[in-house]
Amino acid sequence: MSTAYEAFQVFEQEATAAIEAARNVADLEQVRILFLGKSKGRLKDLQSELGKATPAERPAIGQAFNDMKLRVTQLFDARVEVLSRPESQPRDFDVTLPGNLPRLGREHPITQTIEEFKEIIGRFGFTVDDGPELEDEYHNFDALNIPKDHPARDPLDNFYLAAAKTANGQPILLRSQTSTVQIRVMERTKPPVRIVSVGRVYRPDEIDRTHHQMFHQMEGLMVGEGVTMATLKSVLKMFAAAYLGEDVEIRFRPSFFPFTEPSVEVDVRWRDGWLELGGAGMVDPQVLENVGYDPETITGFAFGLGIARFCMLRHGIDDIRLFYENDLRFLKQF
Ligand code: FA5
Prior knowledge:
Layout: H1 2-21, H2 25-36, H3 42-52, H4 58-84, H5 109-122, E1 127-128, E2 134-136, H6 137-140, E3 159-165, E4 171-174, H7 179-188, E5 193-202, E6 214-224, H8 229-244, E7 250-257, E8 260-270, E9 273-283, H9 285-290, E10 299-306, H10 307-315, H11 321-325, H12 328-331
Parallel strand pairs: 1-5
Antiparallel strand pairs: 2-4, 3-4, 5-6, 6-10, 7-8, 8-9, 9-10
Helix pairs in contact: 1-2, 1-3, 1-4, 2-4, 3-4, 5-10
Bound molecules: adenosine-5'-[phenylalaninyl-phosphate] (FA5).
């Protein structure tokens, strides 16, 4: 009889050791088959010991068997639970290594500025329109009243396409100003007009801290009855204050553009002096005529602002090249 109790004890010790040694659920399943398996497990063999006991011994041995079986199965179930937890699953990497943070993208500062410009100018009732970056001479110069011999047309001051011409034989160039869109919009719209157009323009300028060869402008055009220079100055002042702050100091300087009369340049305080933000003026009657408007009954103003220069002022950046070099260490700050 002592052999049955001894056999139970040996079984319990060995099963316990095997359960505790199992490192994963698969190991544990092998242990289960070996010790507790219904058909061939060692527990099944032990059960036969019960049959050998006399009727008098049987209740005590049966009780001992059941107690032992319960302890082993409970230990087994507890181990299954532990080894099934996610943190117990095998890992093939070192969790203590620093992780790779996903790099979140964001809008380029110029794009952010453009979006804000559209939002601010929208409050003054301007809608957004668009024009092509590849232009013909007519829209970039002729319709804007720029004489044939004007230095602005110089091939050295423009990016002309060497090989391509329009269907009617005109030279094609990368537009040098967004003022081209004034013409395109007026050609297809009856007054009143109140639009802005934002986009890239191209000039082979010498690159320095305030100049690039590809840069962004926002063109504005308001045409209708009773539009005056006073309206223009108010819109530009309010626009600059909305983007750069109420205390912004701007000035209007008399200037000349072939497509506006009178013309001004708009400057803002910058470092020890002034930074030019854009050109503007009253649309020249000749330009209105070129697009089929009647300069006797309507007037208009137009402006063209350098977008990156506003962005420089807002953020205290003193070199425009940073916006176009696209160094992530710079861009990440916006
Ligand atoms: C023009 O381009 C005119 N089309 C503006 C205009 C529109 C006048 C409507 C009248 C009516 P300007 O060449 O001055 O003007 O350029 C306008 C602004 O673009 C400048 O004040 C400046 O802010 C910006 N800009 C000009 N050249 C560069 C450059 N190379 N790099 C960066 N910004 C520039």
